Amino acid sequence: MSFDDLHLDRPPVPRRAPARSATSRWVILGAGTIIAGALLTLWWMARAQSAPAPLAPTSASEAARAPVRPLPQPMELPKLADSDAMLRELFATLSKSPLLARVLVQGDVARVATLTVVQIGDGKTPAVPLAALRSPDRVTIDATTGRPDPASYARWNVLVRSLSAVNATDAAQVYVNVKPLFDEAYRELGYPDGDFDQAIIRAIRMLKATPDLTTDPILLKRPSYFEHDDAALRSLPPVQKQLLLLGPDHRRQVIAWLNQFARTLELKID
Asked: Which residue of 51, 60, 153, 154 has the lowest C-beta tally within 10 Å?
């Protein structure tokens, strides 16, 4: 059994289906959602009416007060239950990415993304919704040091690059355009105010609270799983434990992108 197939904070449970790496799903979902967002932007540009350009600030003080968050652009959204068809159409006509194909083929894309963000904000590892996105490569542990082999972090290279390459401002524009879909899915989960911004804030705060370790963590081998040697790390929320396995460079790139995304949306995450 591989390390990624196990929760770090508890002994293994009876096997029903292979567990999935929460961090990989989060990164993949982030990349897939952003790619879908970029496609939505292209789709809107081809079909929506042009919105009047905002007037430029006339003074330095006005520029300082000007909002950063993009305004929603005029576009007709499908119903939440019908939004998958639009995303699949956009992917099929405008993108050949197999990564996004895996996200879209599962169905209920907006609801799955919403649930994943909510669970991350709760510190949980959402294993079920994105099971099809499991990476074929697993983390390996150095037998001498008990630390993850740094070479195994390379399995996240493509995913992290996919996220980092996306312009956070463009992603924010797409988000505000389709936010009503996420708000509706958020209300369905029992949040009557339905402001999905709050779920994003909680999720980013949870991920940012992951310790920025100066060295890779030591992992102790148990009969069928690994756990952190450091008691403080063992007490972390599951999603933070998994984020540690992304590797320090990748973690910082993801957090840097999330910071920029939040700033563009004027979300208070600090």
From this structure: 60
